[in-house]
Write a structure and sequence with these properties.
With 280 residues, this protein is an alpha/beta fold. It contains eleven helices and twelve strands. The protein folds into two domains: 125 residues, Leucine Dehydrogenase, chain A, domain 1 (Rossmann fold, 3-Layer(aba) Sandwich); 135 residues, Rossmann fold (3-Layer(aba) Sandwich). Strands 2-1-3-5-6-4 form a six-stranded mixed β-sheet, sandwiched between helices. The two termini are 31 Å apart. It binds NADPH dihydro-nicotinamide-adenine-dinucleotide phosphate (NDP).
Length: 280
């Protein structure tokens, strides 16, 4: 890419914290491969400052914002328009700026399903179990329901959260106890447990892990570290395992397409973060 100039288009990620984010690496690799005069940066935005950040981005002519924790709900509120999916989730990880208007979308769930399919796992007609009922889990629950899963089981520490989240899958969704994962073809760990090596010995995940075995795919949304203790336990029990790096890549590819209006160079984006997959 040439140096940024007066015509350079800008996109960014907002979050708090955000300095660990792989999104600049993913998007800038795509711009470079396609010789686009675009730059993608990271902005740390304090809680409460999302409306000001979005207003600033609008005035400065940014083309897109990726939104990470804890701003996904505030991002939805700050947008002028929201997709039916973002409205249903009550959160957005993507803001697209077009002719002065801001459109909210959520690409996490579709990114997950795209990664499952890329890895050869088709959720249609299968039983899926999602551990967790937070924002990431809810995106997955909607996407798995839409992808035709025959059942979407939601296993969560707080049952009331599980019941509400399961409704997002439609009639195939239901809250379930940990042992129900034995019936699932795909088990998705969508809590922050394991992130950065935290949460060793978590009770819920230990209970889930006791019911895993061969013939199942166990997927951890966490990709840092590449193999969490939960994934290691799943692998020990004979299950196939995969971390959330592919979900990150695919949701970023969907964002790239929304921001730039052209197909994302997926292989280039994968290569940009390949080092993070070591050990996965
Ligand atoms: P949230 O903080 O919203 O997750 C909350 C959920 O996790 C709730 O269901 C909560 O249970 C459960 N939970 C939290 N702590 C524990 C615990 N100690 N034991 C059991 N359950 C617990 O996080 P997000 O949904 O935003 O993200 C979840 C994970 O997914 C994060 O690690 C995030 O980095 C990752 N992620 C990865 C992506 C990717 O592209 N790979 C994309 C988005 C997220 P309760 O309801 O009982 O409070």
């Amino acid at each position: 890419m040439t140096s940024p100039g007066a015509r350079t288009q800008l996109a960014a990620v907002i979050g708090d914290p955000v300095r660990h984010s792989l999104s600049p690496r993913l998007h800038n690799a795509a711009y470079g491969a396609l010789h686009m005069d675009w730059v993608y940066v990271a902005f740390e935005v304090a809680p409460g400052s999302v409306p000001a950040a979005v207003a600033g981005a609008r005035v400065l002519g940014l083309r897109g914002l990726s939104v990470t924790t804890p701003h996904k709900q505030a991002a939805l509120t700050a947008a002028d328009h929201a997709s039916p999916l973002a409205q249903r989730l009550g959160a957005a990880n993507t803001l697209v700026f077009d002719k002065g208007e801001v459109f909210a979308e959520s690409t996490d769930g579709d990114g997950l399903v795209a990664d499952l399919r890329a890895a050869g796992y088709e959720p249609s007609g299968k039983v899926a179990a999602v551990i967790g009922a937070g924002g990431a889990a809810r995106s997955a629950i909607v996407a798995l329901g839409a992808a035709g899963a025959s059942r979407v089981l939601v296993v969560n520490r707080s049952i009331d959260h599980a019941v509400r989240a399961a409704e997002l899958a439609g009639p195939v969704g239901r809250a379930a106890p940990a042992e129900a994962v034995a019936d699932a073809a795909v088990i998705l760990q969508a809590t922050p447990v394991g992130l950065g090596g935290r949460g060793e010995g978590n009770e819920l995940l230990a209970e889930v892990a006791a019911h895993l075995g061969a013939g199942q795919l166990v997927y951890d949304f966490v990709y840092h570290p590449p193999v969490t203790s939960f994934l290691a336990a799943a692998a020990n029990s004979g299950a196939a395992v995969r971390n959330g790096l592919g979900m990150l890549v695919h949701q970023a590819a969907l964002q790239f397409e929304l921001f730039c209006g052209e197909p994302a160079p997926l292989a280039v984006m994968w290569a940009a973060v390949a080092a993070e997959a070591e050990g996965a």
